């Protein structure tokens, strides 16, 4: 397995998914669809790698029946990631750590929203203290790990902007355990990447964001320097948001999407693009999504 392909097993990042209550719940921590195209069950070989995700959306808000609510969110998220495999094993598994500091541009429009609220800011820092990957018989690989989203966004419900626009991140911590499984054979990559966002209470606004299950699916084939395939995602909130300990009605979010994957290996650098067509979105902003991933070995 080429080093550059293995390097793209991590896209541990970050959300552009504003929830229905602008003043409180803004973002789903995990950026939907961003792990499509990756080898979910592996960490890269020994070394240091730079990964950059460029994520583009133009989304609309939908209610619990999937009806458009009149609000539109245009956004761009850039997610630079550094991942390091020091070259030793833990419990028989390859070990790696990573850190990401996303930043984003968001512009909200709709009834009662002030114009000209487009805004650059920094999202919550994401620290991955450990990833463990086991190579199993038959071409199978399994990876597990934990991502921690730090409460340090430049603007958030607890630190709102003055122009009435969407904040750049959340004002709470999130713990995200992860599990990836891959089957690799003759240039094929069949992968499932699962994660669960356990959102800690926002003690500054007394708001509890519901926990979220994320799943991303990949089927790709390497054809020389090219990679082609299909990806899909699902994102399901498993319990309702709470404000002051009271459950909020109709706030369980879900979203599904699917689309093509195309990549090219230039040698030491690889580029891969995914495009997801929105299938359905409820109680959330949603729409078509494009992500372009760049992978560069640093040593």
CATH second-level architecture: Beta Barrel
- In CATH, the homologous superfamily goes by the name monomeric porin ompg
In whole angstroms, the N-to-C terminal distance is: 17 Å
Class inferred from helices and paired strands: mainly beta
Please bin the fraction of helical residues: under 10%
Describe what you observe in this structure.
The protein has 299 residues and is mainly beta. It has one helix at residues 3-7; strands at 47-62, 68-85, 89-90, 93-100, 103-109, 119-122, 126-135, 140-149, 174-185, 188-199, 207-208, 212-223, 226-237, 242-243, 246-247, 254-265, 270-282, 284-286, 289-297. A twelve-stranded antiparallel β-barrel has the order 1-2-4-7-8-9-10-12-13-16-17-19. The longest helix is centred in the first third of the chain and has 5 residues, at 3-7. The chain is globular. The model is unreliable at 1-24 (pLDDT under 50).
Provide a concise account of the structure shown:
The chain has 299 residues and is mainly beta.
């Amino acid at each position: 397995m080429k080093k550059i392909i293995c390097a793209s097993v991590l896209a541990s990042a970050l959300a552009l998914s504003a929830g229905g209550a602008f003043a409180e719940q803004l973002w789903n921590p995990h950026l939907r669809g961003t792990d499509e195209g990756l080898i979910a069950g592996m960490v890269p070989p020994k070394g240091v790698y730079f990964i950059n995700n460029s994520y583009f959306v133009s989304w609309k808000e939908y209610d619990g029946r999937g009806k458009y609510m009149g609000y539109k969110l245009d956004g761009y998220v850039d997610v630079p990631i550094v991942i390091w495999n020091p070259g030793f094993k833990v419990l028989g598994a390859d070990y790696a750590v990573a850190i990401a500091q996303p930043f984003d541009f968001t512009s909200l429009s709709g009834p009662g929203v002030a114009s000209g609220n487009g805004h650059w800011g920094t999202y919550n820092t994401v620290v991955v203290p450990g990833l463990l990957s086991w190579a199993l018989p038959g071409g199978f690989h399994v990876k597990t790990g934990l991502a921690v989203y730090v409460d340090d966004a430049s603007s958030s419900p607890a630190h709102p902007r003055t122009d009435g626009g969407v904040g750049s991140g959340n004002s709470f911590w999130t713990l995200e355990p992860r599990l990836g499984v891959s089957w690799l054979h003759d240039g094929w990559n069949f992968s499932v990447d699962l994660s669960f966002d356990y959102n800690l209470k926002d003690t500054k606004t007394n708001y509890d964001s519901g926990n979220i299950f994320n799943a991303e699916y990949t089927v790709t084939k390497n054809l020389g320097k090219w990679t082609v395939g299909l990806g899909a995602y699902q994102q399901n909130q498993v319990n309702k948001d709470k404000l002051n300990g009271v459950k909020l009605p109709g706030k369980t979010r879900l979203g599904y999407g699917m689309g093509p994957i195309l990549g090219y290996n230039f040698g030491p650098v690889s580029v891969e693009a995914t495009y997801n067509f929105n299938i359905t979105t409820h109680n959330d902003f949603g729409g078509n999504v494009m992500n372009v991933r760049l992978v560069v070995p640093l040593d």
